[in-house]
Amino acid sequence: MKRRFFAALVTVMVLASLLAACGTPAPPPPEAPTGPTGSVEIFSWWTAGGEAEGLDAMYDVFAAEYPDVEIINATVAGGAGMEAKAVLATRMQAGDAPDSFQVHAGHELIDTWVVADKMEPVTFIFEENGWLDVYPPGVIEVLSSGGDIWSVPVNIHRSNVLWYNKQVLEDNGLTAPTSLDEFFDAADVLMAAGVTPLALGDSGVWVDLHLFESILLAELGPDAYRGLWDGTTDWNGSGVTAALEAFAQVMEYVNADHSALSWDQAAQLVVDGDAAGTIMGDWAEGYFKSVGLTPDVEFGYVPSPGTAGSFIMLSDSFGLPNGAPNRDGAIAWLTVCGSKDGQDAFNPIKGSIPARTDGDRSLYDVYLQSAMDDFVSNEIVPSLAHGSAASEGWVTAAGDAMTFFVADLDVEAAQAAMAQACVDAGMCE
Ligand code: GAL
User: Quick one: which atom of ligand 1 is closest to the CA of 206?
Assistant: First the structure.
């Protein structure tokens, strides 16, 4: 009994001295991460006001859900990704794919990367997250080819919007034009008052294509506009001639330095009241908000003249390239991109609406709520300038034609070049 007591006492004394030697007890070892780790490189062209903040908001959602993965924000500046897509193509060819990259849903995704066998299908991510029921079938369709889904959409953007400075219109006794004729009438009033009617920033050639697709839709209407992309509407027809003539006329009302400005610099002319309006996708809404403006207060919006009832759509998405260095990290990123939380963090800032049908409407401002309503009630037609309507080669050829056109305003030459671009793309005879 005495011996046992003595042994216990010695044990206690040894433990006490050990503890004293070590100071405070060591904390338990940190739990090993169970999810993805390392870094994940996300490639996009979102650097302008609104775009960059929207992307950051989605990164914040990612960081909260995957604290063990570091995001590498790999951006290449330049609207519509003209520069970014060239850098991406070089990297993909060199076998140096980022973990995930921004790509427009539709032909840009399928005809460029999927047919070249550079992507891994993401159908399993849709299935595992139960997303097949929360995306509109039409959206899933444009992401699909050969029975698989090839990217995760983060949003729906609208291309055909005329944004205007409310004060400038009011000061000149004008309301927003709803047709091309009304636009030209209002533009004359503004010119006489010394205000640029339409801000244009086409240092990136896509901006001319962007403007032209709105004018094509105004002249042709949604059915004939759709037919341009499958060969059923004649590029040599009178509707396209009328659109080019209207485009030439519009060019009389734009700022003289248009070819030196980017889309957001053109939007800034509207903010400053130096121009009355600009025709741009609703990422311009993100821009206006990023400089502190409020929709329906300082700036207004209408469908670009002559296009009410139609919604030129495009969708930004992210894909999973074959050979993504951190495939698990990339899947984690795509899971956030497709989630309700990710989309509801990103889109209210970006100026787009969720691609999902269950976004929280209360988080979206008055413009975005109107876009949500229009997306379910309007005729939906695809954007040429943003990869939904036509293959990348066709977009490039059309862009080249527009570059010449805004310089020489030669309707006949531009129409012939646009018709040839359809033939070269294999859609027209
Ligand atoms: C579009 C893209 C938008 C916006 C815009 C200007 O192609 O879909 O998200 O970023 O370019 O950069």
Answer: 7
